[in-house]
Amino acid sequence: MHLTLAEPGVWIATPTVAQRFGISVHHLQKIAQTLVRAGAVEARQGRSGGVRLARDPREIRLGRLVADLEGVGTAVDCRRDPCPLIGRCRLKWAFDAAEQAFFLELDRLTLADVAAGPTAVALRALFRTEPGDRGNAPAAPVPTDPTSGN
Questions:
Q1: pTM for this predicted structure
Q2: What are the residues whose beta carbons fall under 8 Å from the beta carbon of 13, sequence distance 6 or more?
């Protein structure tokens, strides 16, 4: 979602993103590699490198993005621990149907949809996103959402 705030073509430094979200750089780099393979993100190494969106966020469907990140058929993966009911289990069928409905529901939204409104305000405050900013400014407090009662 943070990449939706960057100007087109601007590279965002991954260590800064990892620090602000409290995750390891290594973990973020693995996620970025998956998103590169999915065609949602571009990555470049080096001092002026980082990550940026490869496509307009209005073209990136959430269901496809989550499926690329998490995999399909992973809610219950019977291949990990072979079960004598493989091929005849209605529980596996039910989980697969629910997972398919989950991805279809997410596909109703784009990355731009979920990164708008209060989310965009909070992300801008967290990263102090300015035109041309590589995300290296100190973090600001995240404003409270007036609709949440906080």
A1: 0.72
A2: 49, 50, 134, 135, 136
